[in-house]
Amino acid sequence: MGNGANNKAAMGDDYSLTRVPMSARQSLWSITIVRVGALATISQFILGASLGYGMTFWQAFWATMFGSVILQVISFLLGYAGAREGLSTSLLSRWTGFGKHGSSIIGAVIAISCIGWFGVQNSVFANGIVEATGGKLSLPVAATITGLGVTVLVIFGFKLLSITATITVPLFLLAVGYGIFKVLKDHSIIDLMSASPAGEPMSMGAAATMVAGGFIIGAVITPDFSRFAKNGKDVFWMATIGVLIGELGINMIAVLMALAAKTNDVVSIMVTTSGWFGAFVVILSTVKINNLNLYSSSLGFTNIFDSVFNIKLNRGMVTLVIGVIGTVLSIMGILDHFVGFLTFLGVLVPPIAGIIVVDYFILKTHRKELDESRKEGKLPEKISNMHPVTFIAWIAGFASGYLITIGIPSINSLVMSGLVYYVGAVLVKKYKKQLERNVA
Description:
The protein contains 21 helices and no strands. It is an all-alpha fold.
């Protein structure tokens, strides 16, 4: 990117339809703080509190560890591919089994999921503002301010996301620390670690499902952020630190609080014990996660328009439009009925990871084209259409995640899709070779 005008254009577009050049890669701190920000949230607190309400401390610890290891493996493999190629999830999928039209379906699933969660989280953000101002601001006014405020931040791309996370993550952890102190000061942590849960017992399988399922979409969209990493080692540390602080750290603190208060409603406890500081926690939490929701949604939409209509939209302008849509939806309250649909989409996403990992690391279908074009800093010129095997594997993964009740649904769907894709691709390759021999 030679001149200032190009740099300015790239700032808003943020390499949404090109490889991220090495000159634009970010430090380990920059990518890690964004990752921690995605995990250190109120929703993670609610998850941890649910575990602490139905399990002992050590049961919750092992359930969190098991779920976290699964997320770590998926995040690292996809994140490594994203960093190596400098591509987002939806763009990478064009050359890892999904082809031109399949990648646009992935873009749509990710975009709709993320814009939906943007609206849901914006409602939480606005409620936090209303509480913090003692009701002086109405919910529609607060939702407009918060939604458009986050939209403006995201227009400027990954660099500003990192700066925002650098400010908000430490403040969030500080506010959380204050809430913890207020709740736990009258309890012995040693006693809590051996205390019985107050709620209905929860099985290890159900708990691990909650942990892995709670961030599976976040794991699948890891390349959206890891494409700014300088190397695979940075991706590993980004994923590991994110899991240690965001999953293990936040979860276990919430477990202790649930055991101390004998309730799973930890958010209410924090807001009532910490007052405006508690509301501040909610606000900081939603700023971080909504940055990422809107960012991934904008990348998904630019890929759809490029692959389906051959129109190259500027990611900054796309962000503005979907930010306004998400804000309007949250003001209208439509998103209260949208969570069921988003949960359904959550079962559609894990098979994507299974197929991409198998294609990129095992089958290496388009690795030669990717390697050659990467040397020139371009995308491969040839984009094939989605193979029928990909579609069958995706359906098989979705069905197993939806219908099989044993184990962890999101992992069942991921493993099944990868397995079916691998076997199907190998059989198709053998069949084609046999046809060629017969013709010869």
